[in-house]
Design goal:
21% of the residues lie in helices and 21% in strands. By secondary structure, it is an alpha/beta fold. It has two domains: 234 residues, Collagenase (Catalytic Domain); 82 residues, no CATH class. A hairpin with a 2-residue loop joins strand 9 and strand 10. The structure holds zinc ion (ZN). The site of zinc ion has 5 residues, from helix 8.
Protein backbone atom coordinates (compact mmCIF):
# COMPACT_ATOMS: atom_id res chain seq x y z
CA UNK A 1 0.00 0.00 0.00
CA UNK A 2 1.21 3.51 -0.58
CA UNK A 3 2.64 5.32 2.40
CA UNK A 4 0.38 7.85 4.06
CA UNK A 5 2.79 10.49 2.89
CA UNK A 6 2.13 9.67 -0.75
CA UNK A 7 -1.53 8.92 -0.65
CA UNK A 8 -2.83 12.24 0.58
CA UNK A 9 -5.12 13.89 -1.94
CA UNK A 10 -5.94 17.51 -2.46
CA UNK A 11 -9.19 16.87 -0.65
CA UNK A 12 -7.28 15.53 2.31
CA UNK A 13 -4.92 18.49 2.35
CA UNK A 14 -7.89 20.84 2.31
CA UNK A 15 -9.57 18.93 5.09
CA UNK A 16 -6.46 18.91 7.20
CA UNK A 17 -6.41 22.69 6.94
CA UNK A 18 -10.08 22.81 7.88
CA UNK A 19 -9.43 20.41 10.79
CA UNK A 20 -6.61 22.56 12.10
CA UNK A 21 -8.71 25.69 11.76
CA UNK A 22 -11.57 24.01 13.56
CA UNK A 23 -9.30 22.90 16.39
CA UNK A 24 -7.93 26.42 16.76
CA UNK A 25 -11.25 28.16 16.64
CA UNK A 26 -13.36 25.64 18.53
CA UNK A 27 -15.60 24.37 15.76
CA UNK A 28 -15.71 20.84 14.38
CA UNK A 29 -14.48 19.90 10.91
CA UNK A 30 -17.93 18.85 9.75
CA UNK A 31 -19.47 22.12 10.91
CA UNK A 32 -16.75 24.11 9.22
CA UNK A 33 -17.13 22.30 5.92
CA UNK A 34 -19.93 23.62 3.72
CA UNK A 35 -22.55 21.04 2.87
CA UNK A 36 -21.55 18.55 5.56
CA UNK A 37 -23.57 19.99 8.40
CA UNK A 38 -26.37 17.54 9.33
CA UNK A 39 -24.22 14.37 9.32
CA UNK A 40 -21.11 14.46 11.58
CA UNK A 41 -22.22 15.53 15.05
CA UNK A 42 -20.11 17.98 17.07
CA UNK A 43 -17.26 16.44 18.97
CA UNK A 44 -17.16 13.12 17.07
CA UNK A 45 -14.44 13.91 14.61
CA UNK A 46 -10.94 14.84 15.65
CA UNK A 47 -7.72 14.96 13.68
CA UNK A 48 -6.58 11.76 15.42
CA UNK A 49 -9.38 9.40 14.50
CA UNK A 50 -9.84 10.47 10.91
CA UNK A 51 -8.66 8.21 8.14
CA UNK A 52 -8.52 8.17 4.37
CA UNK A 53 -11.22 6.33 2.48
CA UNK A 54 -12.00 6.04 -1.20
CA UNK A 55 -15.08 7.56 -2.78
CA UNK A 56 -16.56 5.91 -5.87
CA UNK A 57 -18.52 7.85 -8.48
CA UNK A 58 -21.36 6.23 -10.39
CA UNK A 59 -19.41 6.95 -13.60
CA UNK A 60 -16.51 4.79 -12.31
CA UNK A 61 -14.32 7.67 -11.14
CA UNK A 62 -12.46 7.27 -7.82
CA UNK A 63 -11.17 9.87 -5.38
CA UNK A 64 -10.27 10.08 -1.70
CA UNK A 65 -11.54 11.78 1.44
CA UNK A 66 -10.66 11.92 5.13
CA UNK A 67 -13.49 10.77 7.38
CA UNK A 68 -14.06 9.95 11.06
CA UNK A 69 -13.41 6.35 12.15
CA UNK A 70 -16.45 6.49 14.42
CA UNK A 71 -20.01 7.13 13.37
CA UNK A 72 -22.07 9.81 15.10
CA UNK A 73 -25.04 7.41 14.84
CA UNK A 74 -23.75 4.09 16.17
CA UNK A 75 -26.14 2.15 18.35
CA UNK A 76 -24.55 -1.30 18.02
CA UNK A 77 -25.60 -3.35 21.04
CA UNK A 78 -22.25 -5.16 20.90
CA UNK A 79 -20.23 -2.01 20.57
CA UNK A 80 -22.08 -0.43 23.48
CA UNK A 81 -22.47 -3.47 25.73
CA UNK A 82 -26.27 -3.39 25.65
CA UNK A 83 -28.34 -6.58 25.49
CA UNK A 84 -28.55 -7.58 21.82
CA UNK A 85 -31.73 -7.67 19.78
CA UNK A 86 -33.16 -11.05 18.77
CA UNK A 87 -31.04 -12.70 16.09
CA UNK A 88 -28.31 -10.11 16.48
CA UNK A 89 -24.87 -11.55 15.80
CA UNK A 90 -26.21 -14.74 14.17
CA UNK A 91 -23.77 -16.18 11.64
CA UNK A 92 -24.90 -17.98 8.47
CA UNK A 93 -22.63 -19.66 5.91
CA UNK A 94 -23.65 -18.23 2.53
CA UNK A 95 -20.87 -20.16 0.83
CA UNK A 96 -18.96 -22.92 2.59
CA UNK A 97 -16.15 -24.48 0.61
CA UNK A 98 -14.08 -25.79 3.49
CA UNK A 99 -12.15 -25.29 6.71
CA UNK A 100 -11.58 -21.55 7.40
CA UNK A 101 -7.88 -22.30 7.93
CA UNK A 102 -7.61 -23.43 4.29
CA UNK A 103 -9.93 -20.83 2.73
CA UNK A 104 -10.21 -17.11 2.25
CA UNK A 105 -13.04 -16.06 4.55
CA UNK A 106 -15.27 -13.17 3.52
CA UNK A 107 -17.45 -11.72 6.25
CA UNK A 108 -20.51 -9.79 5.12
CA UNK A 109 -22.28 -7.69 7.75
CA UNK A 110 -25.60 -6.00 7.14
CA UNK A 111 -26.52 -2.56 8.40
CA UNK A 112 -29.93 -0.91 8.48
CA UNK A 113 -31.74 -4.26 8.31
CA UNK A 114 -34.37 -4.59 11.04
CA UNK A 115 -35.17 -7.91 12.77
CA UNK A 116 -37.76 -8.93 10.16
CA UNK A 117 -35.39 -8.05 7.28
CA UNK A 118 -32.59 -10.51 7.96
CA UNK A 119 -33.62 -12.76 5.04
CA UNK A 120 -33.43 -9.70 2.80
CA UNK A 121 -29.95 -9.02 4.19
CA UNK A 122 -28.79 -12.54 3.35
CA UNK A 123 -30.26 -12.25 -0.16
CA UNK A 124 -28.54 -8.88 -0.67
CA UNK A 125 -25.26 -10.32 0.66
CA UNK A 126 -25.50 -13.28 -1.74
CA UNK A 127 -26.20 -10.86 -4.59
CA UNK A 128 -23.07 -8.84 -3.74
CA UNK A 129 -21.00 -12.02 -3.73
CA UNK A 130 -22.37 -12.85 -7.22
CA UNK A 131 -21.33 -9.40 -8.43
CA UNK A 132 -17.83 -9.88 -7.02
CA UNK A 133 -17.36 -13.39 -8.39
CA UNK A 134 -18.44 -12.28 -11.86
CA UNK A 135 -15.06 -10.52 -12.05
CA UNK A 136 -11.81 -12.39 -12.77
CA UNK A 137 -9.82 -13.77 -11.09
CA UNK A 138 -12.65 -14.26 -8.54
CA UNK A 139 -14.69 -16.29 -11.06
CA UNK A 140 -11.93 -18.86 -11.55
CA UNK A 141 -10.96 -18.99 -7.88
CA UNK A 142 -14.39 -18.83 -6.20
CA UNK A 143 -13.93 -22.22 -4.50
CA UNK A 144 -11.05 -20.80 -2.45
CA UNK A 145 -13.59 -18.72 -0.52
CA UNK A 146 -16.06 -19.11 2.32
CA UNK A 147 -18.66 -16.37 2.77
CA UNK A 148 -20.14 -15.74 6.21
CA UNK A 149 -23.18 -13.50 6.71
CA UNK A 150 -23.27 -11.89 10.15
CA UNK A 151 -26.66 -10.49 11.13
CA UNK A 152 -26.42 -7.07 12.70
CA UNK A 153 -29.99 -6.34 13.72
CA UNK A 154 -30.80 -2.64 13.50
CA UNK A 155 -33.50 -0.93 15.55
CA UNK A 156 -34.56 0.96 12.41
CA UNK A 157 -34.72 0.01 8.73
CA UNK A 158 -32.53 1.91 6.25
CA UNK A 159 -29.44 4.00 6.87
CA UNK A 160 -28.77 7.67 7.61
CA UNK A 161 -28.57 10.03 4.64
CA UNK A 162 -31.08 8.02 2.57
CA UNK A 163 -33.16 9.36 0.92
CA UNK A 164 -31.80 12.77 1.87
CA UNK A 165 -29.16 14.44 3.96
CA UNK A 166 -31.47 15.14 6.88
CA UNK A 167 -32.59 11.51 7.36
CA UNK A 168 -31.23 9.88 10.53
CA UNK A 169 -31.64 6.16 11.23
CA UNK A 170 -30.43 4.27 14.28
CA UNK A 171 -28.58 1.24 13.00
CA UNK A 172 -26.19 -1.40 14.30
CA UNK A 173 -23.12 -0.08 12.48
CA UNK A 174 -24.03 3.61 12.19
CA UNK A 175 -23.73 3.66 8.36
CA UNK A 176 -24.41 7.01 6.74
CA UNK A 177 -24.41 8.55 3.28
CA UNK A 178 -23.26 12.17 2.90
CA UNK A 179 -20.14 11.30 4.85
CA UNK A 180 -17.68 14.21 4.60
CA UNK A 181 -20.46 16.07 2.76
CA UNK A 182 -20.36 13.63 -0.20
CA UNK A 183 -23.73 12.04 -0.99
CA UNK A 184 -22.40 8.73 -2.36
CA UNK A 185 -19.79 8.30 0.39
CA UNK A 186 -21.19 5.63 2.74
CA UNK A 187 -19.22 5.65 5.99
CA UNK A 188 -19.49 3.22 8.87
CA UNK A 189 -18.33 2.84 12.47
CA UNK A 190 -15.14 0.78 12.36
CA UNK A 191 -15.30 -0.45 15.97
CA UNK A 192 -18.86 -1.66 15.50
CA UNK A 193 -17.81 -3.47 12.31
CA UNK A 194 -15.01 -5.19 14.18
CA UNK A 195 -17.38 -6.28 16.96
CA UNK A 196 -19.61 -8.09 14.46
CA UNK A 197 -16.76 -9.42 12.30
CA UNK A 198 -15.44 -11.18 15.41
CA UNK A 199 -18.59 -13.37 15.41
CA UNK A 200 -17.54 -15.16 12.19
CA UNK A 201 -15.13 -18.12 12.31
CA UNK A 202 -12.47 -16.04 10.57
CA UNK A 203 -12.36 -12.67 8.81
CA UNK A 204 -9.92 -12.18 5.94
CA UNK A 205 -12.15 -9.70 4.10
CA UNK A 206 -14.96 -7.56 5.49
CA UNK A 207 -17.86 -6.24 3.47
CA UNK A 208 -20.60 -4.06 4.97
CA UNK A 209 -23.86 -4.13 3.03
CA UNK A 210 -26.22 -1.25 3.78
CA UNK A 211 -29.98 -1.61 3.40
CA UNK A 212 -30.32 0.96 0.64
CA UNK A 213 -30.85 1.05 -3.12
CA UNK A 214 -29.03 4.36 -3.42
CA UNK A 215 -25.66 4.16 -5.18
CA UNK A 216 -22.75 4.44 -2.80
CA UNK A 217 -20.00 2.90 -0.76
CA UNK A 218 -16.51 3.45 0.57
CA UNK A 219 -13.15 1.71 0.62
CA UNK A 220 -11.36 1.70 3.97
CA UNK A 221 -7.89 0.49 3.07
CA UNK A 222 -6.08 1.94 6.08
CA UNK A 223 -7.67 -0.57 8.44
CA UNK A 224 -5.54 -3.17 10.20
CA UNK A 225 -7.77 -5.18 12.50
CA UNK A 226 -6.45 -7.54 15.19
CA UNK A 227 -8.85 -10.05 13.62
CA UNK A 228 -6.59 -10.14 10.57
CA UNK A 229 -8.59 -8.29 7.91
CA UNK A 230 -6.92 -5.35 6.22
CA UNK A 231 -9.73 -3.24 4.93
CA UNK A 232 -13.46 -2.73 4.90
CA UNK A 233 -15.61 -2.11 1.84
CA UNK A 234 -19.06 -0.61 2.31
CA UNK A 235 -21.67 -1.04 -0.43
CA UNK A 236 -25.37 -0.40 -0.92
CA UNK A 237 -27.22 -3.73 -0.87
CA UNK A 238 -29.88 -2.79 -3.38
CA UNK A 239 -27.64 -1.21 -6.00
CA UNK A 240 -26.28 -3.50 -8.73
CA UNK A 241 -23.14 -1.47 -9.37
CA UNK A 242 -21.86 -1.26 -5.81
CA UNK A 243 -20.22 -4.72 -5.76
CA UNK A 244 -17.47 -3.22 -7.92
CA UNK A 245 -16.43 -1.12 -4.94
CA UNK A 246 -15.58 -4.29 -3.01
CA UNK A 247 -13.61 -5.68 -5.95
CA UNK A 248 -11.49 -2.53 -6.16
CA UNK A 249 -10.96 -2.48 -2.40
CA UNK A 250 -9.68 -6.07 -2.41
CA UNK A 251 -7.18 -4.98 -5.05
CA UNK A 252 -5.54 -3.19 -2.11
CA UNK A 253 -6.16 -5.66 0.72
CA UNK A 254 -5.53 -8.93 -1.17
CA UNK A 255 -3.50 -7.82 -4.18
CA UNK A 256 -1.48 -5.16 -2.31
CA UNK A 257 -2.03 -3.07 -5.42
CA UNK A 258 -1.69 0.70 -5.68
CA UNK A 259 -4.35 2.97 -7.10
CA UNK A 260 -3.76 3.70 -10.76
CA UNK A 261 -5.62 7.01 -10.78
CA UNK A 262 -4.11 10.47 -10.40
CA UNK A 263 -5.04 13.96 -9.29
CA UNK A 264 -4.42 16.77 -11.73
CA UNK A 265 -2.92 19.07 -9.12
CA UNK A 266 -0.56 16.51 -7.59
CA UNK A 267 2.45 17.41 -9.78
CA UNK A 268 5.34 15.09 -10.60
CA UNK A 269 6.31 12.17 -8.38
CA UNK A 270 9.85 12.61 -7.02
CA UNK A 271 10.14 9.70 -4.58
CA UNK A 272 11.76 6.28 -4.62
CA UNK A 273 10.45 3.29 -6.59
CA UNK A 274 7.12 2.33 -4.92
CA UNK A 275 6.70 -1.13 -3.41
CA UNK A 276 3.45 -1.98 -5.20
CA UNK A 277 3.52 -4.30 -8.22
CA UNK A 278 1.40 -2.04 -10.46
CA UNK A 279 3.07 1.38 -10.32
CA UNK A 280 6.63 2.30 -11.17
CA UNK A 281 8.96 5.20 -11.81
CA UNK A 282 10.33 3.22 -14.78
CA UNK A 283 9.41 3.65 -18.43
CA UNK A 284 8.73 0.45 -20.41
CA UNK A 285 12.25 0.42 -21.89
CA UNK A 286 13.97 0.81 -18.54
CA UNK A 287 11.66 -1.75 -16.93
CA UNK A 288 12.42 -4.28 -19.67
CA UNK A 289 16.15 -3.61 -19.30
CA UNK A 290 16.02 -4.08 -15.51
CA UNK A 291 13.64 -7.05 -15.61
CA UNK A 292 11.59 -5.65 -12.73
CA UNK A 293 7.94 -4.89 -11.89
CA UNK A 294 5.61 -5.95 -14.72
CA UNK A 295 8.38 -6.44 -17.32
CA UNK A 296 7.19 -10.03 -17.93
CA UNK A 297 3.84 -8.72 -19.14
CA UNK A 298 5.02 -5.89 -21.39
CA UNK A 299 3.47 -6.05 -24.86
CA UNK A 300 0.82 -8.63 -23.92
CA UNK A 301 -2.91 -8.12 -24.47
CA UNK A 302 -4.52 -7.27 -21.12
CA UNK A 303 -8.04 -8.33 -20.04
CA UNK A 304 -8.96 -4.69 -19.36
CA UNK A 305 -8.19 -3.76 -22.98
CA UNK A 306 -5.09 -2.70 -24.90
CA UNK A 307 -1.57 -3.96 -24.28
CA UNK A 308 0.54 -3.82 -21.17
CA UNK A 309 3.04 -0.97 -21.30
CA UNK A 310 3.98 1.95 -19.07
CA UNK A 311 1.25 4.57 -19.12
CA UNK A 312 2.13 7.78 -17.34
CA UNK A 313 -0.03 8.71 -14.35
CA UNK A 314 -0.90 6.58 -11.33
CA UNK A 315 -0.46 6.37 -7.58
CA UNK A 316 -2.25 9.79 -7.41
CA UNK A 317 0.44 11.50 -9.54
CA UNK A 318 -0.25 12.55 -13.14
CA UNK A 319 3.49 12.48 -13.91
CA UNK A 320 6.59 10.63 -12.75
CA UNK A 321 4.75 7.34 -12.07
CA UNK A 322 3.59 4.78 -14.62
CA UNK A 323 0.79 2.20 -14.60
CA UNK A 324 0.56 -1.02 -16.65
CA UNK A 325 -2.56 -0.29 -18.73
CA UNK A 326 -4.78 2.60 -19.73
CA UNK A 327 -7.76 1.90 -17.51
CA UNK A 328 -7.94 -1.10 -15.16
CA UNK A 329 -10.25 -1.51 -12.15
CA UNK A 330 -7.53 0.06 -9.99
CA UNK A 331 -8.23 3.27 -11.93
CA UNK A 332 -11.98 3.06 -12.67
CA UNK A 333 -14.83 0.88 -11.43
CA UNK A 334 -16.58 -1.43 -13.89
CA UNK A 335 -13.26 -2.54 -15.40
CA UNK A 336 -11.19 -5.74 -15.24
CA UNK A 337 -7.88 -6.14 -13.42
CA UNK A 338 -4.94 -5.81 -15.81
CA UNK A 339 -2.43 -8.67 -16.17
CA UNK A 340 -0.10 -7.54 -13.33
CA UNK A 341 -3.17 -6.89 -11.15
CA UNK A 342 -4.65 -10.30 -11.84
CA UNK A 343 -1.33 -11.94 -11.00
CA UNK A 344 -1.16 -10.06 -7.68
CA UNK A 345 -4.75 -11.00 -6.82
CA UNK A 346 -4.15 -14.72 -7.39
CA UNK A 347 -1.02 -14.58 -5.24
CA UNK A 348 -3.12 -12.81 -2.59
CA UNK A 349 -5.81 -15.49 -2.70
CA UNK A 350 -3.16 -18.12 -2.01
CA UNK A 351 -1.81 -16.20 0.96
CA UNK A 352 -5.09 -17.12 2.70
CA UNK A 353 -6.22 -20.28 0.93
CA UNK A 354 -4.57 -23.49 -0.19
CA UNK A 355 -4.78 -25.34 -3.54
CA UNK A 356 -5.14 -28.68 -1.70
CA UNK A 357 -7.41 -29.85 1.11
CA UNK A 358 -8.47 -33.22 2.48
CA UNK A 359 -11.21 -34.44 4.79
CA UNK A 360 -8.51 -36.59 6.47
CA UNK A 361 -6.41 -34.52 8.86
CA UNK A 362 -2.67 -34.50 8.25
CA UNK A 363 -0.75 -36.46 10.83
CA UNK A 364 -3.49 -39.11 10.90
CA UNK A 365 -2.11 -42.67 11.02
CA UNK A 366 -3.51 -44.64 8.10
CA UNK A 367 -3.36 -48.32 7.17
CA UNK A 368 -3.51 -50.24 3.92
CA UNK A 369 -7.26 -50.66 4.44
CA UNK A 370 -7.88 -46.91 4.19
CA UNK A 371 -8.97 -44.83 1.22
CA UNK A 372 -7.66 -41.27 1.18
CA UNK A 373 -9.31 -38.44 -0.72
CA UNK A 374 -8.19 -34.88 -1.43
CA UNK A 375 -9.93 -31.87 -2.97
CA UNK A 376 -8.50 -29.53 -5.60
CA UNK A 377 -10.66 -26.39 -5.49
CA UNK A 378 -9.20 -24.83 -8.63
CA UNK A 379 -9.69 -26.46 -12.04
CA UNK A 380 -6.46 -27.44 -13.77
CA UNK A 381 -4.49 -27.91 -10.54
CA UNK A 382 -1.72 -30.56 -10.87
CA UNK A 383 -1.47 -33.24 -8.21
CA UNK A 384 1.43 -35.56 -7.42
CA UNK A 385 1.90 -38.18 -4.70
CA UNK A 386 5.12 -39.06 -2.93
CA UNK A 387 5.88 -42.06 -0.70
CA UNK A 388 8.88 -41.52 1.55
CA UNK A 389 9.97 -38.69 -0.73
CA UNK A 390 9.75 -40.62 -4.03
CA UNK A 391 7.01 -39.88 -6.51
CA UNK A 392 4.43 -42.59 -7.22
CA UNK A 393 3.86 -41.72 -10.91
CA UNK A 394 0.79 -43.93 -11.28
CA UNK A 395 -1.10 -41.70 -8.84
CA UNK A 396 -0.64 -38.41 -10.73
CA UNK A 397 -3.85 -36.43 -10.75
CA UNK A 398 -5.71 -38.99 -8.62
CA UNK A 399 -7.87 -37.36 -5.92
CA UNK A 400 -8.78 -40.72 -4.33
CA UNK A 401 -6.16 -43.29 -3.40
CA UNK A 402 -6.63 -46.80 -1.98
CA UNK A 403 -3.63 -47.18 0.27
CA UNK A 404 -3.53 -50.92 -0.42
CA UNK A 405 -2.30 -50.00 -3.92
CA UNK A 406 0.80 -48.30 -2.56
CA UNK A 407 2.60 -51.51 -1.50
CA UNK A 408 5.38 -49.77 0.38
CA UNK A 409 8.59 -51.73 0.80
CA UNK A 410 10.80 -51.96 3.88
CA UNK A 411 10.36 -53.30 7.40
CA UNK A 412 6.68 -53.74 8.36
CA UNK A 413 7.17 -51.92 11.62
CA UNK A 414 8.35 -48.74 9.95
CA UNK A 415 5.73 -46.10 9.06
CA UNK A 416 5.81 -44.48 5.65
CA UNK A 417 5.30 -40.85 4.86
CA UNK A 418 2.69 -40.20 2.17
CA UNK A 419 2.61 -36.68 0.73
CA UNK A 420 0.29 -35.05 -1.79
CA UNK A 421 1.58 -31.94 -3.56
CA UNK A 422 -0.76 -29.69 -5.56
CA UNK A 423 0.32 -26.86 -7.84
CA UNK A 424 -1.82 -24.39 -9.74
CA UNK A 425 -0.03 -23.99 -13.10
CA UNK A 426 -2.01 -20.90 -14.13
CA UNK A 427 -0.30 -18.80 -16.81
CA UNK A 428 -1.84 -15.76 -15.09
CA UNK A 429 1.07 -15.82 -12.61
CA UNK A 430 4.46 -15.28 -14.25
CA UNK A 431 6.69 -14.10 -11.39
CA UNK A 432 8.74 -17.10 -10.10
CA UNK A 433 8.60 -15.76 -6.52
CA UNK A 434 4.80 -15.60 -6.68
CA UNK A 435 4.53 -18.96 -8.44
CA UNK A 436 6.02 -20.62 -5.36
CA UNK A 437 2.94 -19.57 -3.40
CA UNK A 438 0.68 -21.56 -5.73
CA UNK A 439 1.70 -24.89 -4.22
CA UNK A 440 0.28 -26.73 -1.24
CA UNK A 441 1.11 -30.09 0.31
CA UNK A 442 -0.38 -32.46 2.87
CA UNK A 443 1.24 -35.49 4.55
CA UNK A 444 0.04 -38.58 6.38
CA UNK A 445 1.72 -41.57 8.03
CA UNK A 446 0.94 -45.00 6.59
CA UNK A 447 1.64 -48.30 8.33
CA UNK A 448 2.02 -51.39 6.22
ZN1 LIG B 1 -8.16 2.31 -4.37
Amino acid sequence: MPSSRNRRSRTAATLLTVTLAAALFGGTPAMAKPGGAPIAAPGTATGDDRREVEVFGEDGGISRARVPGASPYTVSPHAQGVAPLQGDGDVTALVRNGDPAAKLDVVVIGDGYAAQEQDKFRADAAEKWSEITAVEPYATYRKLFNVWAVSAVSPESGVSGDPDQTTVRHTALGSYFWCDGVERLLCVDEKAVEGYAAKAPQADLVLVVANSAKYGGAGYNDVKSPLGYEGIATVAGGNAKSGQIAVHETGHSLGKLADEYAYDGQGTYQGAEPAEANISTLTADRMRAQGTKWSRWLGQASPDGGTVGAYEGGGYYPAGLYRPTENSIMRSLGREFNLPGREAMIAGFYRHATPLTSPTATGTWLTAADRLTVDLPVAGTRLRWYLDGREVPGLRGRTAVDLADLRPTGPRSRPHLLTAVATDPTPAVADPALRQKLTGSLSWLVTS
